[in-house]
Every structure is written in structure tokens, then in C-alpha cells.
Amino acid sequence: MSRFIDLTLNGISNGMIYAAVALSLVLIWRGTRIINFAQGGMLMITTFIASSVIGSTGSYWVGFVVALLSGLVLGAAVERILVRGLEGRPPLNAVIATLGLLIFLQAVAGMIWGGTPRSFPPAFSIRGYEVSGRHVLFGPFDTFTVLAVLGMAGALALLFRGTGLGLQMRAAAFDPLSARLQGVRVTRMYTVGWALAALSGSLAGLLVAPAVFVGPNTFDSILVFAFTAAVLGGLDSPVGAVIGGLVLGLSLSYVSGYAGSSLVTLAALAILVAVLMVRPEGLFAVTRTRRI
Amino acid sequence: MLRVDGLTAHYGPVRALEEVSLEVPAGGIVAVLGTNGAGKTSLLRAISGLLRASSGRIMFDGTTINQAGTEDLVRRGLAYVPEGGGVIGELTVEENLRLGALWRRDREEQARTREEVVGLFPRLAERSRMHASTLSGGERQMLSIGRALMGRPRVLLLDEPSLGLAPIVAEQIMRVIGELRRDRGLTVLLVEQNARSALSVADRGVVLNVGRVVAEGEAGELAGDAQLRHAYLGLA
């Protein structure tokens, strides 16, 4: 029983990280119909930046904030420089372009910071809480992980539902032409969308880095997990992305605990294939009625 | 207020408009008539910046707007309601309305305009929290016109506002257009296949055929021209 509880707690904490990356994929998919394969590379860059800043200032929190800000800037820059030129082109162009960006970012990171993964500090202790004389698999840093991701998801929900900027972003995503006819600067909304998505990704990078270390390729698998989580949630729904991340985190934690950790990636792919076969619109898809 | 001089425009190699000229004076209502494919929608798209002119000139309020972006024209007071309304079904009625005035920033102004718009179309207030996709055709048209009015435009471009509506609803829409001109001096360029309905509210009419102006004149004149009615307007 205690093992089950441990795996569950661990699954929640991991699931939140998948949720944050899934959220960044969903935000971009919703806004620009592009699967951003470079997301893992982008959050790798911002986490490396955090690592350097922490190294030179000695303050985790300065590095934390700089990483989030550089995520915003990187996301906006990628949209402006790369994505804007893809508008109106076949979807395959976007796939190749974001894959190319991923390779580019990994090469740049290798040139600047080297290819050997380095350790990354957690914000708080990773030692599990002591419950009736036993350390559970959930500590202060896990609490922080869950709260940070939920806080960010909540802030994004508030932005989308409660502000004029959010309304314009939703309008631009649903119907760019109609949005333009209401004076919405649609291309600017895309830039903001990419910036926010990259922010969400860079938060995930900071949260997962203590476990996977920081290297040009250490975040590759998280993109697979996040993509699975996003598909699980319907790819179009931010709420679905968070729930999908949680479901995937729990599933993979049980697989790892009861069947062996070597099966985790395989299990993620099996879930992805199963969802695509059985319910390609995702488990939590909102069926969109659209009359033209 | 709005002037088009020798406007020619293409979709790729296909010419959609050829040397089209027309003028809409401030506070006037001009109807653009013609059958399907006559170039009516292309004309509105060109004026609103969605279709670039190959040659000719489009003037709005004394300045040339050939190169202006759609978003900027909307902000300068040139609103375009496309065919079908362009209502965003995923948003609620209220959100659609808000969207029309967001760029204006002034919250009080927005609230005041909203009251006016809801006064014109009380139906919108009843449905304000519903998703726009659940609206009927007439309600959608009311919402799209109301949303355009939220930006307090000086010129309104309307594409087939009565298309697919019950005659009584179409009549109501036309009546509102007439009221808008009377009460606030709104200038309207109205595209319609339904000539009878359009000429009932317009001062003047322009008839397009295959991208060219083939006739123009006072609304009453056009409505009474038997030959024209037969050839281009589909009226008996």
C-alpha cells in the first residue's frame, strides 16, 4: 500500500511537469496549428541559461526568473523569425522547420555549454516528507512543482478567460479573419501566444532539470511524454493538457514501479498509439460545433 | 466619405474587378447589386484591405487606403461585415460583442456603446451568455452588425446581410440599417443579391456584372428599370 501511495505521489509530481510542457504544445497548436518539435530544445536553452545565471550569481531565484523571462523572449523570437514565414505553407514545412530548430538549438547549446550534462539544483529539498516514521516519495520540491504548474495554468486560464488580451488571443486562434475584422492584431497575438507557450516550457525545464540534469539532449524524452499528454487531452484544450499530463504521470509512475523503469518510454508510446486508435480527438476533447 | 476610382483587382490570374468606380457620400447608403460572381464581394474585400488592388485608387475620408492593413482600417472607422457575418461560434455572444470594441480601450465608452447596440438588437442581451454557434441565422446577422457597431465605425461595409434569412428578419435588418444612417449619420455600402430589399433602403445603386459597373443610378430609377431588372437583378 505504501508503495502505491509513493508511486501515486511521484506520478502527480512528474505529471505536473508533463502538463507544463503539454500546455506549451497545446497553446501553440491552438494558435498556429503547428506542433512545436523544438519545444524540448527551447526549454533546454532556457534551463542552461538558468544554470549559468545561478552559477555566476549564486542565487537560484535570480536564475529561475531569468529563465522564465528568456523563455518569453525566445518564444516571441522564434515566432517572429521562423514561424511567421511558414504561414500559409503546407503543414510539413512547419514540421521540418521546428525539427531543424531543435537540431540548431542543440548544436548551439553544445558549442556554448559543452555536451556533458551538468547537475541542476532544485528550488527546495527533494527529500521526501516524513510520514509516520517513513519518508514518502514526495518532498518540498514536489510541492513546489505542483503549485508552480497549477499556479501558471491558473494564471493562463485567467488571462484567456478574464482579460481583453486573452479574448483577442482566443479570437485570433479560432477565426483569424474575423478577428482581424474586429481590429485584432492577429500576428501580434501569435507572437504573444508563442511567448507564453515558451514560458510554460521553460518552467517545466527548471522543474525537471534536477532529475534529468542539463545537457543538449537530456530533455528529449520529455517532449515525447508531453506530446502524449497533449494528445491525451485533445491537443486543443489547455485544461485537457493539464489533466492529460496528470494521467500520463500517474500511468508511467505505476508502470515504472510495478513493471520496471525500462518500460516507461514504451508505455508512453503505447498510450499514445492507443489514444490515436481509439479516441483520436483526445479523452477530454470539447466537440466543436462549427457552422460556416 | 468613401470613393473608389478605376479599381482593378485579381485573384491570382483571374480578374475579379475591372475599372470599378463609385462614391458613397457621408451619411449615404449605396447598394452594390449583381448576380453571383459579379465581383460584389471582391469589391468589399478590396476596400477593406483583404484583397490588394492591382490598379486604381480607394479613398476613405480623404486619404488613399490602397496599402492600409485591415486591422488599421477597422481602427480608423471602416467596418466590414462579411457574408454570413463572421461571428465566432466558439465565443459567447457577449465575447463577440466585446471583441468589436476592444481596441478602443476606453471602458466607459465601450459600455455605453454596448447599451446602444443591445438597444438596437434586444435579442443579443437575451442570448449574451450563449455560444454564438447556437444562434439562428437572423441572430447571427444581428450579432455581426452589432459587433461591427461596437467599434463606432463611420463607414459600414455589409455583404449580403439578408442572405438566407426569413423575409421578415431581412426586413428588420434593412430597417435597422436605415435607422443607423438617420440617427447617427452612418455611411453604408451594401452588397446584395436581393435587389428589391437593398433598393428599399439605399439612395443609390451600382450594378456589377463580371467585375464591371454596368449601370448606376438613383435607387428608385434602378428599381423601375425593367430591362435592368430582367438582365442583372433577377427580378421579374
Helix-and-strand structural type of chain A = mainly alpha
**Total strands of chain B:** 10
What is the total domain count of chain B? 1
Round the mean pLDDT of chain A to the nearest integer and report it: 92
Based on the coordinates given, report the CATH architecture of chain B: 3-Layer(aba) Sandwich
Structural class of chain B: alpha/beta
Question: Quick one: which chains have the greatest interface?
Answer: A-B, 22 and 26 residues
The helix content of chain A, as a percent range, equals over 70%
Q: How do the strands line up in the largest sheet of chain B?
A: 6-7-8-3-9-10
What does the largest sheet of chain A look like?
Answer: 2 strands, antiparallel
Q: Describe it for me?
A:
The complex is a heterodimer of chains A (292) and B (236). With 292 residues, chain A is mostly helical. Chain A has a domain at 13-114 and 139-218. Helices cover 73% and strands 1% of the residues of chain A. Chain A is built from eleven helices and two strands, in the order ααααββααααααα. Chain A has a two-stranded antiparallel sheet. In chain A, strand 1 (130-131) and strand 2 (134-135) form a beta hairpin. With 236 residues, chain B is α/β, with parallel strands linked by helices. Chain B has a single domain (2-233), classed as Rossmann fold (3-Layer(aba) Sandwich), CATH 3.40.50. Chain B contains ten helices and ten strands. In chain B, the strands form two sheets. In chain B, strands 6-7-8-3-9-10 form a six-stranded mixed β-sheet, sandwiched between helices. Chain B has a four-stranded antiparallel β-sheet with strand order 2-1-4-5, with helices on one face. Chain B is globular and about 45 Å long. The mean pLDDT of chain B is 90. The chains are: A mainly alpha (292), B alpha/beta (236).
